[in-house]
Automatic annotation (TrEMBL):
It comes from the Eukaryota. GO terms for molecular function: purine-nucleoside phosphorylase activity. This is Purine nucleoside phosphorylase. Pathway: Purine metabolism; purine nucleoside salvage. It comes from Diutina rugosa (Yeast).
Length: 297
């Protein structure tokens, strides 16, 4: 692992590269989740696109539905300058957690103050349906309990403390603003608040794992967001995070081989295609609410 000085230099080098390509420094970062890349389409003004491979230190995204570029532009009447991350990096792709959160550190060095993190997630709370939204009010960093943690290693004291508190990770005012804007826009889709359970993936959960997630207090489960949120908080950013429920995570016991007429074992099975389809269908509402929120920042 490189020294804190080397890491800081890498963040600064990336930030310098970005500064040389844009005329306004962004105030807000948006990370687009699976199928939510349409969020980048709400950017207006003098749009600038920078592929990850043109930014020193950035890894490239390998997942279908994740493009791999930063898009700069403005949102809303207030022309709030925004940096949109189109194509996030996941631990399951083989990167270190530090690599996956590199763009968040660069955002902090650029002077960005607020991050909006979106994801597609499996609904674990009974009653959650595909197409519904969950504003994240807390998380469970399950891999973190076993040491797979984005802040492992020497502390970067220029950003934050060794022992970062996270009891206030999900900004109350931003959650409230999100709810208010959804109401103003008359969004009819159900919006909940809940706990996001982070699993590294890339497998979707087994039935027993879904029951475990539920027992432990997870309302939705997914393979992203938490490392980014932790590092954003450690860098002093305010966080708004949103899960689009794209599928119901199946937690029923599997049909028994003793049964005469067992249900089909594949019933309700999660698939990436379903995730993308649901995200695509709900994306217009998400874009409208996020745009209205950012306009106030
Ligand atoms: N589990 C984990 N990650 C996901 C899911 C899921 O069911 N749906 C979308 N991302």
């Amino acid at each position: 692992m490189s020294t804190p000085q080397e890491q800081m230099e890498a963040f600064r080098r990336a930030a310098e590269t970005l500064r040389s390509k844009i005329d306004v420094v962004p105030r807000v970062m948006i990370i687009c989740g699976s199928g939510l890349g349409g969020l980048a389409n709400i950017l207006e003004g003098n749009r600038v696109e920078v592929p990850y491979h043109d930014i020193p230190g950035f890894k490239t995204s390998t997942v279908q539905g994740h493009a791999g570029k930063l898009v700069f532009g403005t949102i809303g009447q207030n022309k709030v300058p925004v940096m949109c991350m189109l194509g996030r990096l996941h631990y399951y792709e083989g990167y270190s957690l530090q690599d996956t959160v590199f763009p968040v550190r660069v955002a902090a060095v650029l002077g960005i103050k607020t991050i909006i993190v979106t994801n597609a997630a499996g609904g674990v709370r009974p009653g959650f349906k595909p197409g519904e939204l969950m504003v994240i009010d807390d998380h469970i960093n399950f891999p973190g309990f076993a040491g797979t943690h984005p802040l492992r290693g020497p502390n970067l004291a220029e950003f934050g403390p060794r022992f970062q508190p996270l009891s206030d990770a999900y900004d109350f005012e931003l959650r409230k603003l999100f709810m208010d804007k959804a109401k103003e826009l008359k969004v009819t889709r159900n919006i909940y608040e809940g706990t996001y359970f982070y699993a590294t993936g890339p497998t979707f959960e087994t039935r027993a794992e879904v029951r475990m997630v539920r027992t432990l207090g997870g309302d939705a489960v997914g393979m992203s967001t938490v490392p980014e949120v932790i590092v954003a908080r450690h860098s002093g950013l305010r966080v708004l995070a949103l899960s689009l429920i794209t599928n119901e995570a199946v937690g029923d016991k599997p049909p028994s081989a003793f049964e005469e007429n067992p249900k089909d074992l594949s019933e309700g099975m999660a698939s990436h295609d379903e995730v993308l389809e649901t995200a695509d269908e709900a994306s217009k509402d998400v874009e409208a609410i996020v745009a209205a929120v950012v306009n106030e920042l």
